[in-house]
């Protein structure tokens, strides 16, 4: 059985309350879901996962898909993007642990400030108007794309 909710800073929210997912996770049956809607989601997940595996930044593309095609609110799309990232990061950690490629001092020196900044960013994002958040995210995606294109042009 699938989990039917997620934790937020304000407590547990049922996944059934999200318009873009309503009826989709009602047990294991296909009742309440349209395969025509579900298949593009699967295709988008595979495409963004493949791009992320190649280092293209599939997580950012997933947020764009969820906000534009699925009309999901920005913060919810970013939360799903975090789960997307974790599902690929955990196996990578396991492989690198097995191959003894991890420098734990460096990991801690990056993880601790990263976690603090993530919490602060989450608090800030919850207070900012969604339209402004969407514009800032779009601007960051344009900058990241331009940087990647510029780097590829120099290589």
Task: Give a verbal description of the structure.
With 155 residues, the chain is mainly alpha-helical. Helix content is 67%, strand content 5%. It has five helices and two strands; from the N terminus they run E-E-H-H-H-H-H. It has helices at residues 35-53, 58-68, 74-98, 104-127, 130-154, and strands spanning 5-8, 11-14. It has a two-stranded antiparallel sheet. Helix 1 packs antiparallel against helix 2 and helix 2 runs antiparallel to helix 3. The longest helix has 25 residues, at 74-98. It is globular. It starts with a strand and ends with a helix. Residues 1-33 have low confidence and may be disordered.
Strand order of the biggest β-sheet: 1-2
Question: Number of DSSP strands?
Answer: 2
Low-confidence parts: 1-33
Strand content: 5-15%
